[in-house]
Design brief:
globular
């Protein structure tokens, strides 16, 4: 189901003009099976402190992983692309967009009869701010973003505009 829902979420990218990358394809293909393997291999901790520690580590790892593969410019996963696309299109902060997406998913899951626990609510409230912090830390500018726009003697105004747009997008991801 994770893979199917990922494909459906990709359709929401169309009005946002979000483009997939290698990371997008790998995310859709690998997240579901990886979750299944993890659930089959890892035992559920018996003590509450171990559960909390595992949860907190997983949440931080998710934010860092999102920062790594989005920052490396390999293409975001379905929810991440929805997040970055809405951020770019509407100018809303990353933390707000991601929290809204996760809140919507929580609400839909609850309406379909799924359980909502403390961990579920914690993910909704914390993953957006954590990803917002991780993105600028791991962002690697592309060659187009790291070069300066052409000087005033350059006759091609469109390349200046493209360079400025890329620089703006770079600043947005860094939270400036």
């Amino acid at each position: 189901m994770t893979n199917i829902i990922g494909l459906i979420v990709l359709l929401l990218w169309i009005p946002l003009r979000q483009k997939p990358g290698v990371g997008t394809i790998l995310n859709v293909l690998l997240v579901g099976p990886s979750a299944e393997v993890g659930l089959a291999v890892l035992r559920e901790p018996e003590t509450l402190w171990a559960r909390i520690l595992l949860f907190a580590g997983g949440l931080i790892l998710l934010a860092v992983a999102s920062g790594l593969y989005i920052g490396a410019q390999y293409g975001p996963g379905p929810r991440d692309g929805l997040m970055t696309g809405m951020h770019r299109r509407f100018g809303l902060p990353i933390w707000f967009v991601r929290t809204a997406i996760e809140g919507t998913v929580l609400l839909l899951g609850w309406l379909l009869g799924g359980p909502v626990g403390v961990g579920t609510v914690a993910v909704v409230l914390l993953i957006g701010p954590l990803v917002h912090l991780a993105l600028p830390i791991f962002h690697i500018p592309t060659p187009e973003q790291s070069t300066q726009s052409p000087g005033p003697s350059h006759p091609d105004r469109s390349s200046q505009t493209k360079s400025a747009d890329l620089a703006d997008e770079d600043r947005e991801l860094k939270g400036a």
